[in-house]
Design a protein that fits this description.
The complex is a heterodimer of chains A (281) and B (471). Chain A is an alpha/beta fold. Chain A has helices spanning 22-25, 68-75, 110-122, 142-147, 167-176, 190-203, 236-239, 250-257, 261-275, and strands spanning 2-11, 14-20, 33-37, 45-48, 51-53, 58-64, 81-82, 84-89, 100-106, 126-133, 151-156, 163-164, 183-187, 207-210, 226-229, 232-235, 242-244. In chain A, the strands form four sheets. In chain A, strands 12-11-10-9-13-14-17 form a seven-stranded mixed β-sheet, with helices on both faces. In chain A, strands 5-6-2-1-7 form a five-stranded antiparallel β-sheet. Chain A has a three-stranded antiparallel β-sheet with strand order 4-3-8. The longest helix of chain A is centred in the C-terminal third of the chain and has 15 residues, at 261-275. Chain B is an alpha/beta fold and 471 residues long. Helix content of chain B is 36%, strand content 17%. Chain B is built from 19 helices and 18 strands. In chain B, helix 5 crosses helix 9 and helix 6 runs antiparallel to helix 9. Classes of the chains: A alpha/beta (281), B alpha/beta (471). Chain A binds chain B through residues 23-24, 27, 37, 41-44, 68-69, 83-89, 216-217, 219-224, 226-228, 233, 235, 238, 249, 251-252, 255-256, 258-260, 263-264, 266-267, 270, and chain B through 176-178, 186, 214-217, 220-223, 241-243, 245, 247, 251-254, 257-258, 260-261, 264-265, 269-270, 274-280, 282, 353-355, 401-403.
C-alpha cells in the first residue's frame, strides 16, 4: 500500500498529492510515469511523475478528476493509501543541452512538463515556457514553472490571464520576435499536442509530445496503448511516452482514447451515486 | 495368465453443460468424485517401464501417486505429487497431457483404449488436499544457504522459488503486476483455471517462506546492479511478454485487440464483472479471433461468455496443424465457436469513427513443410472475402519483452531476441544469472516453464554452494 502524505487542491477538480513509493522515487527520471490502482477492484491508470523526493521516498502526482479512478483519488485523504503504484515506467526524456528549448504545457499536462523543464534548465538550456488553459484558474503550477524558466508566457482562451488565445499563438509570438528554438516539448490535452505539433512543423521546430493513451499493464505486455508513429505501430508505455510530434497519427489516437467512453460514464455515474455529491471537487 | 481387463474409456467427468456455461465464467470441468477417481486410478496398469513419467517435463512419479490414490491413501498421494510439482492443481488443469504423460500411457497404446486420465487424477488429488483446509508444509531448513532473487511470479519463477526455499534459500520474487501468478492470473481464464486455485498455490509457495514483492518491475523499480549486490544469484522468469501483431492495415482500429490485452482485462482486471470491477471491456457481437492455439481458444470462449452472438476462429493452416490442447478445441466446438481453417486476415476495415466493422481475409493452401516442420500456408490469389466483425482478437503469439532486457545489456540474447541460456541449467552469459520459461524458449507451456524453473533451482543451488565453498 502506498500512503498519501500530503494533498492539495490546485484548481477546480485538480489535485496534487505526495505518496510514499520509495522504489519509484529512487529510480524516477523526468518524463516517466507510474501505473496506479486505488483499490482491489480498481482500474490500472497511468499518471505522470510530476516530481520525486528520493530522501523521503515519495513521489508527487498531479491529476484532474475526470473518471471514476481520478474522482476516487480526489476524495482520498492524507493517511489513505493507494492500492498499487508501479514504476517508474516509460523512457525518460532526453535531457541534454539543446540551446533554447520551448516547453508547452496545457491543463494537467503542465504537471508533466514541469520535471522536464527543470532538468533541461539544470542541463544549461535557455527555457521558454508557454502555459495554456481555458481560464486563469486552470493554469496550474505557474510560479513553479516560472522559477525554472528564463521566460514564461501564459495563454488563456478567455484572456483572463496573459495572452488571449491558445498555446500555438504563444509559440508563433515567440518565434516572430526572432527567438531561435532548438527543441520543443508539448504536453497537455491531445488536441493541444496535435496543434502544437502542426505549428512546430510550420515553424521548423523539432517537438516531442508525451502521449497518454489508454494503458493496462504499462510494461509492454498488452498493446492497449499502441499508437501509429510514422508508419510504425509503437507501444506508448515502453517505446514512449514521448515521440516525435510530427510523426504521430493524432486522429487515430483520439479515436482510441474514446474507446470506452460509454463504460467510463457508467463507472463514474455509479461511483457518484454511491458516494453522493462531489460537486465540491 | 490373468487377462488384463480394463475399461476402454476414461471415467467420464462432470462438466457444466455448454448451453449453460457460455453464460458464465465458472469452471467448465467439475472434477471427479472419490469413487470416480479411484475407478480411474484402477485403469492404471502400474507398468514397469512407466513411459508416462518420461513424458512429464517434471518427471512426476505418476504411477506412485495413482497407486496411493487407488489405495485411497490420499495424503500419501498428495505428498508424492507435491514432492515433484509445486502447482499440481494448475497442471492437472492446463497441461497438454495428450502430448505428454497421457500421450505415452501404455493403456492408451492398447487397441481401442483411451489413456489413463492422469491430468484429471492429478487435479483430483491436489483439490482434495486443498479442501482439507490444511496444506502439508514441508520442513524448511532454518539456516539460510544464501539469497536468491527471482524476476517474475509466473510458473517458472514460482517453481524455482519454491524449490529453492525448500532447499533452504532466502527467496524474494519481484513481480511487475499487482498480483502473483503470471500467465495463470492474467492469461488463462477463470473457466479453465479458477483464480482462487492460483491464489491457493501462490499461498502455498509463500508458506515456504518465499517473499513476493508485487508492483516491482526489475530494471525499473529495482536495477540489475541493486539485485546483484543484494542477492547471490538471480533467476529470470519474466515470460515472453510482448504481443505480436500481424501489422496488417487497420490494426489500431477500435475493437482490434491483442489476446494479451483482451485476456488481461478479463482475467487479471475482472472486466467481465464490469461495472462492479472498474476495468471496462468492449462487448463484441461478431467476433473474429486470429490463431488456433490455447490462447485463441481462451479468447474466443471468453468473447462468447461476454455476450458475443458469433465467434469465428480464423487460422491460416488447417485443423491438423492446430496447436491448441485437444480438450480446449472440443470445448470450443461444443460451445459453438466456428472454425475457419486455411483463412488469414489481410486487412481490418473500419468506419469513420475508427471502429472496426469487418475483417478482410484471404483463403490459404498448404505448401511444402517450413522450418517448424508444418506445411507452409500460401495465399490463394483472388480468394479474398470479407467477414463482418465489430471485434477482432489477434492470438498469434508473443515476442520478448524489452523492459528488463534493455536494462541488462550484458545478457546475451538469441537471434530471436530471447535470453540465451543452457537448456539443462538455465545458466545465462552472465555469472550468477539464470533464466527459464518463455523468456528463453519463446511462448510455450506452463509445465515447460515449471520444468525450467526446477532445473535452474538445482543449478542455482550448485552455483551458490560452489561459490561459497571457494570463499
Amino acid at each position: 500500500m502506498f500512503e498519501i502524505t500530503s494533498k492539495e487542491k490546485i484548481a477546480t477538480k485538480e489535485y496534487e498529492i505526495w505518496v510514499k513509493a520509495p522504489k519509484v522515487a529512487s529510480h524516477a527520471k523526468p518524463g516517466q510515469f507510474v501505473v496506479i490502482r486505488t483499490s482491489p477492484n480498481g482500474e490500472r491508470i497511468p499518471l505522470t511523475i510530476a516530481d520525486f523526493n528520493t530522501e523521503k521516498g515519495e513521489i508527487r502526482l498531479i491529476f484532474q478528476a475526470v473518471g471514476k479512478t481520478t474522482y476516487e483519488m480526489a476524495t482520498m485523504k492524507v493517511g489513505d493509501s493507494l492500492q498499487d503504484i508501479a514504476g517508474p515506467l516509460g523512457r525518460p526524456s532526453e535531457i541534454k543541452k539543446y540551446g533554447t528549448v520551448m516547453m508547452i504545457g496545457g491543463g494537467v499536462g503542465i504537471a508533466a512538463i514541469l520535471p522536464i523543464l527543470k532538468a533541461l534548465k539544470d542541463a544549461g538550456n535557455k527555457v521558454i515556457t508557454i502555459l495554456g488553459g481555458r481560464s486563469a484558474d486552470l493554469v496550474i503550477l505557474k510560479d513553479e514553472c516560472e522559477r525554472f524558466s528564463d521566460e514564461l508566457l501564459v495563454t488563456t482562451d478567455d484572456g483572463s490571464m496573459g495572452m488571449k488565445g491558445v498555446v500555438t499563438d504563444g509559440m508563433k509570438e515567440v518565434v516572430k520576435r526572432g527567438e531561435k528554438i532548438d527543441q520543443a516539448w508539448s504536453i497537455g490535452p491531445t488536441v493541444m499536442m496535435k496543434f502544437s505539433a502542426y505549428t512546430a512543423k510550420e515553424l521548423g521546430i523539432p517537438i516531442f509530445v508525451s502521449l497518454n493513451p489508454i494503458m493496462v499493464d504499462g510494461t509492454g505486455m498488452c498493446g492497449a496503448c499502441r499508437v501509429t508513429v510514422g508508419k510504425n505501430i509503437r507501444f506508448a508505455c515502453v517505446d514512449g511516452p514521448e515521440f516525435d510530434g510530427y510523426e504521430v497519427n493524432w486522429d487515430e489516437l483520439m479515436n482510441r482514447l474514446r474507446q470506452y467512453k460509454d463504460q467510463e460514464k457508467i463507472s463514474l455515474e455509479n461511483y457518484i451515486a454511491k458516494v453522493g455529491d462531489l460537486s465540491w471537487l | 495368465m490373468a487377462v488384463i481387463k480394463i475399461p476402454n474409456n476414461k471415467t467420464p467427468i462432470k462438466e457444466q453443460e455448454p448451453g449453460e456455461r457460455i453464460h458464465n465464467f465458472k469452471e467448465v470441468v467439475l472434477g471427479y468424485t472419490l469413487e470416480e477417481a479411484v475407478a480411474e486410478a484402477n485403469r492404471c496398469l502400474q507398468c514397469v517401464n512407466q513411459p508416462c513419467v518420461a513424458g512429464c517435463p517434471v518427471n512426476i512419479d505418476i504411477p506412485g501417486f495413482i497407486l496411493a490414490l487407488k489405495n485411497r491413501d490420499l495424503p500419501k498421494s498428495a505428498q508424492i505429487l507435491k514432492s515433484y510439482n509445486n502447482l499440481p492443481a494448475v497442471c492437472g488443469r492446463v497441461c497438454p497431457q495428450e502430448s505428454q504423460c497421457e500421450g505415452r500411457c501404455t493403456v492408451g497404446k492398447m487397441k481401442d483404449h483411451e489413456p489413463v486420465a492422469i491430468g484429471k487424477l492429478e487435479r483430483f488429488v491436489a483439490d482434495w488436499e486443498a479442501n482439507q483446509g490444511t496444506m502439508n508444509i514441508p520442513e524448511i531448513p532454518s539456516r539460510k544457504l544464501g539469497k536468491v532473487a527471482i524476476i517474475g511470479a509466473g510458473p517458472a519463477g514460482l517453481t524455482a522459488a519454491a524449490d529453492l526455499a525448500k532447499m533452504g534459500y532466502e527467496v524474494k520474487i519481484f513481480e511487475a503486476l499487482h498480483a502473483a501468478g503470471g500467465v495463470l492470473m492474467y492469461g488463462i481464464p477463470e473457466f479453465r483455471l479458477p483464480k482462487s486455485i492460483v491464489e491457493r498455490e501462490v499461498n502455498f509457495i509463500k508458506s515456504l517462506g518465499v517473499e513476493i514483492d508485487t508492483d516491482s518491475i526489475a530494471g525499473r523499480s529495482i536495477t540489475i546492479s541493486e539485485l546483484k549486490d543484494e542477492f547471490d544469484a538471480i533467476f529470470i522468469g519474466t515470460g515472453a511478454g510482448t504481443p505480436s501483431f500481424m501489422n496488417i492495415p487497420g490494426t489500431n482500429l477500435n475493437g482490434v485487440y491483442s489476446a494479451s490485452e483482451f485476456l488481461t482485462r478479463i482475467n487479471l482486471m475482472h472486466a467481465y464483472k464490469f461495472p462492479e470491477s472498474d476495468t471496462p471491456i468492449r462487448i463484441g457481437k461478431r467476433v473474429v479471433v486470429v490463431g488456433a492455439g490455447n490462447v485463441a481458444m481462451d479468447a474466443s470462449r471468453s468473447a462468447l461468455r461476454l455476450g458475443a452472438e458469433s465467434v469465428k476462429i480464423v487460422y491460416r493452416r488447417s485443423k491438423e496443424e492446430m496447436p491448441a490442447r485437444i480438450e480446449e478445441y472440443h470445448h470450443a466446438i461444443e460451445e459453438g465457436i466456428e472454425f475457419h481453417w486455411l483463412t488469414n486476415p489481410i486487412e481490418y476495415i473500419g468506419d469513420d469513427k475508427g471502429n472496426l466493422t469487418a475483417v478482410k481475409c484471404i483463403k490459404m493452401k498448404l505448401g511444402e513443410p517450413d522450418a517448424s516442420g508444418r506445411r507452409r500456408p500460401i495465399p490463394i490469389e483472388g480468394s479474398e472475402f470479407v467477414m463482418e466483425a465489430d471485434m477482432a482478437i489477434e492470438a498469434i503469439g508473443q515476442t520478448s519483452n524489452k523492459v528488463l532486457l534493455s536494462a541488462f545489456p550484458e545478457l546475451k540474447l538469441t537471434s530471436h531476441g530471447y535470453i540465451e541460456a543452457d537448456p539443462e541449467t538455465g545458466q545465462t552469459s552472465v555469472e550468477g544469472v539464470f533464466a527459464g520459461g518463455d523468456i528463453v524458449t519463446g511462448a510455450a507451456t506452463v509445465i515447460l516453464a515449471m520444468g525450467a524453473g526446477k532445473k535452474s533451482a538445482k543449478a542455482i543451488d550448485r552455483y551458490i554452494k560452489s561459490k561459497k565453498a571457494v570463499v
